[in-house]
């Protein structure tokens, strides 16, 4: 990300969090230049970007101010998850979401798909074609159970950015992050065991727990900082928790980045109660700020953190290539990998190793971060403009997911059905909870480049929400 966008994101977050209120004067161009060590023109570009987003307004000879008329949507409320283990539900609704095949006339704002139209993916496509044409036996045979060594060496190099110093032998290549997470859970837990999770949480992990006969204990989660560590400590004292699973960086679906102090405290708690941490880091490379946030794994001193990631969100989901750094659980994870898919397909591994080695990954990430940041700001603006008053919206610090909260009692499952005739799909909030909470919430994907079509879809979603709320109010009055 360019310097001015990085600075604009920082100021925008401060405005969003209320550090600068409507009517407040923003820092001067000169003071920001000195504070952040950037040129005056960089600060001016940042302010022009904020002006385009409606977050800042210039006043002659006075500087920049937060517009008085600026309506900043409130953040989603801190989740109030019941601190007791529950059996995971919602499989039917998850199946409905993931079974929807791509359709040219259906705008799918519910799936966790990145934009795959970027020209920075062309070298990867050429690599795939070249590998296929070579007729190399390596492409058609089984690879090693731990994955191709060339790819693992490149992944180990990438993980330096997350604060981890690992070797290729510390990693296992998986068929996407989903297999990494599943293998991690199975390596540690047995049927009937309890796993503590952030709430709302990725539905894929929830369904893995359901399939393996385990229970989830949902923890209260702040939309800006992540899980409540005091609540986690109480849960660890009360329940025989075997593992803690969470997405601390560019969380799905809330979008927060857990502060480093909280990450260190989390590792200390895990050490104290001798539990494992399963870290889903699949979105962290898409953080809008630079450098990318540190992983929990980077604070791991005794191998209890199982780090899981993939290229599905940063490059393309169809590659189905992920990895896990399982620490002390390496042999158990390799066994679970064998029981799952055996070895991962060679062709995408070799093409990815070449793509990474040739230096194409970082330019691609820079392009996508900037695009997703612009798309986020527009999506938040559209939701604020077209959704009913009182709608709460997350402030993602990376990736391409927006969490939207409507009034209590609203039914997002009903909304999804009502949107089908309009060829629009959203992700209902209930699938992000083991117990089916967050029925009044939805998750929206803003990965695709902004367009009039997407704006019209958001406007239609807002109108449909208003109709359903009015219909529910009428039924309640008549009752």
From TrEMBL:
Q: What is the protein name for this chain?
A: DNA-binding transcriptional regulator, MocR family, contains an aminotransferase domain
The family line of this record is: In the C-terminal section; belongs to the class-I pyridoxal-phosphate-dependent aminotransferase family.
For this protein, the record's CDD domains field holds: AAT_like (cd00609), WHTH_GntR (cd07377)
Q: Which GO terms describe its molecular function?
A: DNA binding; DNA-binding transcription factor activity; pyridoxal phosphate binding; transaminase activity
Instruction: Write out the entry's keywords from A to Z.
Output: Aminotransferase, DNA-binding, Pyridoxal phosphate, Transcription, Transcription regulation, Transferase
What InterPro entries does the annotation carry?
A: Aminotransferase_I/II_large, HTH_trans_reg/aminotransferase, PyrdxlP-dep_Trfase, PyrdxlP-dep_Trfase_major, PyrdxlP-dep_Trfase_small, Tscrpt_reg_HTH_GntR, WH-like_DNA-bd_sf, WH_DNA-bd_sf
Name the Pfam families on file: Aminotran_1_2, GntR
């Amino acid at each position: 990300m360019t310097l001015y966008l990085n600075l604009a994101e920082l100021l925008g977050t401060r405005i969003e969090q209320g550090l600068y209120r409507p009517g407040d004067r923003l820092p001067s161009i000169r003071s920001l230049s000195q504070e952040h060590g950037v040129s005056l023109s960089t600060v001016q570009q940042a302010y022009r970007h904020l002006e385009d987003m409606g977050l800042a307004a210039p006043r002659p000879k006075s500087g920049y101010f937060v517009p008085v008329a600026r309506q900043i949507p409130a953040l989603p409320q801190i989740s109030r998850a019941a601190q007791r283990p529950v059996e995971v539900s919602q499989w039917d609704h998850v199946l409905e979401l993931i079974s929807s095949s791509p359709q040219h006339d259906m705008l799918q704002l519910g799936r966790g798909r990145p934009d795959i139209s970027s020209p920075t993916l062309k070298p990867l496509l050429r690599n795939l074609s070249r590998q296929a044409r070579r007729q190399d036996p390596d492409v058609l045979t089984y690879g090693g159970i731990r994955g191709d060594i060339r790819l693992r060496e490149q992944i180990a190099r990438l993980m330096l950015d997350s604060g981890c110093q690992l070797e290729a032998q510390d990693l296992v290549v998986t068929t996407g992050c989903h297999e990494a997470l599943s293998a991690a859970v199975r390596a540690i837990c047995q049927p009937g065991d309890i796993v503590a999770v952030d709430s709302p949480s990725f539905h894929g992990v929830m369904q893995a727990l359901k399939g393996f006969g385990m229970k989830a204990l949902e923890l209260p989660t702040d939309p800006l900082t992540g899980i409540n560590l005091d609540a986690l400590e109480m849960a660890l004292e009360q329940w025989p928790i075997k593992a803690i699973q969470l997405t601390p960086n560019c969380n799905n679906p809330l979008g927060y980045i857990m502060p480093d102090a909280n990450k260190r405290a989390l590792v200390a708690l895990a050490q104290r109660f001798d539990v494992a941490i399963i870290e889903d880091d699949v979105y962290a490379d898409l953080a809008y700020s630079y450098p990318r946030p540190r992983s929990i794994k980077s604070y791991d001193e005794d191998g209890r953190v199982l780090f899981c990631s993939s290229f599905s969100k940063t490059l393309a989901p169809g590659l189905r290539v992920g990895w896990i750094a399982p620490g002390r659980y390496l042999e158990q994870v390799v066994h679970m990998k064998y029981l799952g898919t055996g070895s991962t397909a060679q062709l995408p591994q070799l093409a990815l190793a070449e793509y990474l080695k040739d230096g194409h990954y970082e330019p691609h990430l820079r392009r996508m971060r900037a695009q997703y940041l612009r798309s986020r700001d527009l999506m938040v603006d559209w939701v604020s403009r077209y959704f009913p008053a009182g709608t709460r919206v997350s402030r993602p610090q990376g990736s391409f997911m927006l969490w939207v909260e409507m009034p209590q009692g609203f039914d997002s499952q009903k909304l999804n059905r009502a949107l089908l005739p309009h060829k629009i799909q959203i992700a209902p909030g209930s699938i992000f909870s083991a117990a089916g909470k967050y029925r009044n919430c939805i998750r929206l994907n803003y990965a695709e480049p902004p367009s009039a079509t997407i704006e019209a879809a958001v406007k239609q979603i807002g109108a449909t929400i208003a109709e359903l709320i009015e219909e529910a109010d009428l039924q309640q009055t008549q009752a």
